[in-house]
């Protein structure tokens, strides 16, 4: 009985890690994005407060335009797209390339709840294998 519980927990964890990998894959490709400008751009997750009621009926293009309205421009100084990806399931927001000065201005805009720098995390494959085999949770 306990072993089945550990298998279910491991399967759920695997699903979560797989989802995180899929969600972060556009970020890892964009992280190596070169910028010709002397400004130092970094990727930030911008969390938006509860969207207006009409956001529920927005299509993807309208939602992306609404998110872009928070940005100083749609392109960086070097002409690269500023927005990397958007989120609207668990939380509302987007990932964008910003300088520290732009970040400071954006974080004070109405509707922005917080901004955090994107950090790439590597999954510990040995630890995951142990979890899947039940070793990390006291399994046989």
Describe this entry's structure for a reader.
With about 140 residues, the protein is of the alpha+beta class. It has one domain (about 1-130): 2-Layer Sandwich (Alpha-Beta Plaits). Helices cover about 40% and strands about 20% of the residues. It contains 4 helices and 4 strands, in the order H-E-H-E-E-H-E-H. The chain has a 4-stranded antiparallel sheet with strand order 2-3-1-4, with helices on both faces. A hairpin with a 4-residue loop joins strand 2 (about 85) and strand 3. The radius of gyration is 19 Å and the shape is globular. About 10% of the residues are buried. This is Inhibitor I9 domain-containing protein.
Give the arrangement of secondary structure elements.
Blueprint: H1 2-31, E1 42-48, H2 60-68, E2 83-87, E3 92-98, H3 100-107, E4 112-117, H4 125-132
Antiparallel strand pairs: 1-3, 1-4, 2-3
Estimate percent helicity.
25-40%
In order across it, which strands form the biggest sheet? 2-3-1-4
Strand content: 15-25%
Please tell me what the overall shape is: globular
What's the story with the biggest beta sheet?
4 strands, antiparallel
CATH superfamily: Peptidase S8 propeptide/proteinase inhibitor I9
Counting DSSP E segments of at least 2 residues, the number of strands comes to 4
The figure for the number of domains is 1
- Write down the oligomeric state: single chain
Radius of gyration: 19 Å
Structural class: alpha+beta
End-to-end separation in angstroms reads 12 Å
CATH topology: Alpha-Beta Plaits
CATH architecture level-2 label? 2-Layer Sandwich
Mean pLDDT: 73
Unreliable residue stretches: 9-38
């Amino acid at each position: 009985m306990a072993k089945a519980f550990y298998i279910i927990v491991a399967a759920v964890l695997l699903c979560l890690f797989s989802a995180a990998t899929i969600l972060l894959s556009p970020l890892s490709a964009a992280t190596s994005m070169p910028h010709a400008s002397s400004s130092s751009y970094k990727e930030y997750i911008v969390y938006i407060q509860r969207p207006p009621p009409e956001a529920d009926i927005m299509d993807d293009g309208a939602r992306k335009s609404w998110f872009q309205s928070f940005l100083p421009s749609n392109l960086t100084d070097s002409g690269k797209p500023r927005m990397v990806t958007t989120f609207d399931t668990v939380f509302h927001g987007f990932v964008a390339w910003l300088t520290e000065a732009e970040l400071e201005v954006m974080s004070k805009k109405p509707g922005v709840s917080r901004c955090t720098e994107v950090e790439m995390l590597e999954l510990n494959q040995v630890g995951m294998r142990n979890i899947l085999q039940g070793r990390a949770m006291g399994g046989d």
